[in-house]
Design goal:
By secondary structure, the chain is of the alpha/beta class. It has two domains: about 140 residues, HAD superfamily/HAD-like (Rossmann fold, 3-Layer(aba) Sandwich); about 70 residues, DNA polymerase, domain 1, CATH 1.10.150. Helix content is about 40%, strand content about 10%. It contains eight helices and five strands, in the order βαααααβααβαββ. Strands 2-1-3-4-5 form a five-stranded parallel sheet, covered by helices on one side. β3, α8 and β4 form a beta-alpha-beta unit. The chain is globular. The mean pLDDT is about 90.
Length: about 220
């Protein structure tokens, strides 16, 4: 069994891609003057760091302005989450999996590209304190490059005190998979909401693709 479990959050513990689509759809026209196409959202927005997104579409604007835009967009995203209670829940089977990991004293944490304001939102609504110490969670604080750079996973392993070969990472995006792989982690389990997940073959390190955590005991086998 591996020594540590690292979860990405968005799209991995909580299937929220549709909420992000809705938030960007509502947010961008008033600020950019046009909607983003589905192709733009898929290739340049979803799974990307907010700071990189706003620099791509708004050019050379100040960091202060970028921070304002991030706060506005994420407020709209959280509003969309609350407007969709049917889907505003952790992925099926995850709570039982987390209970098991906690009972077995297997180190685990979250490495998310979300800002602190969203992390606090998740902590409040999903009661993540049942399993995670907020001090151990790595989030986007603006001090390191976003995925696919490996920094977030290097920081997470340092905080947990583990080596790459001792980790299992749960990811959903290609950028996240590349980040974990670049950090030296080669046991990566990808989450995907549909059966069509062939694109994970583009990157190394993905050992399994799953849709939920219902059969979580199978995920810990070497």
């Amino acid at each position: 069994m591996k020594k540590a479990i690292i979860f990405d959050f968005n799209g991995t513990m909580f299937f929220d891609t549709v909420m992000h689509y809705r938030a960007w759809h509502n947010f961008m026209p008033a600020r950019l003057g046009r909607e983003l196409s589905r192709d733009e959202l898929d290739h340049h927005v979803i799974g990307q760091a907010n700071i990189d997104i706003f620099r791509r579409y708004f050019g050379d604007i100040s960091l202060e302005r970028i921070e304002e835009l991030i706060l506005e967009k994420e407020a709209e995203y959280r509003r969309q989450c609350l407007l969709d209670p049917e889907h505003f829940h952790l992925v099926d089977g995850l709570e039982d999996f987390l209970d098991y990991l906690k009972a077995e004293k297997i180190p685990m944490t979250i490495a998310t590209g979300s800002p602190l304001v969203n992390l606090n939102f998740y902590m409040e609504h999903f009661h993540l304190e049942r399993w995670f110490s907020a001090e151990q969670i790595i989030y986007d604080d603006g001090t390191y490059p976003g995925k696919p750079a490996p920094d977030i996973y290097l920081l997470t392993m340092e905080r947990l005190g583990v080596l790459p070969e001792e980790c299992i990472v749960f990811e959903d995006s290609l950028g996240g998979v590349r980040a974990a792989h670049a950090a030296g982690i080669h046991h990566i389990i990808a989450l995907h909401e549909t059966e069509n997940a062939d694109f994970y073959a583009e990157v190394g390190g993905v050992t399994k693709v799953i849709r939920n955590y219902r059969n979580f005991w199978e995920l810990l086998a070497d």
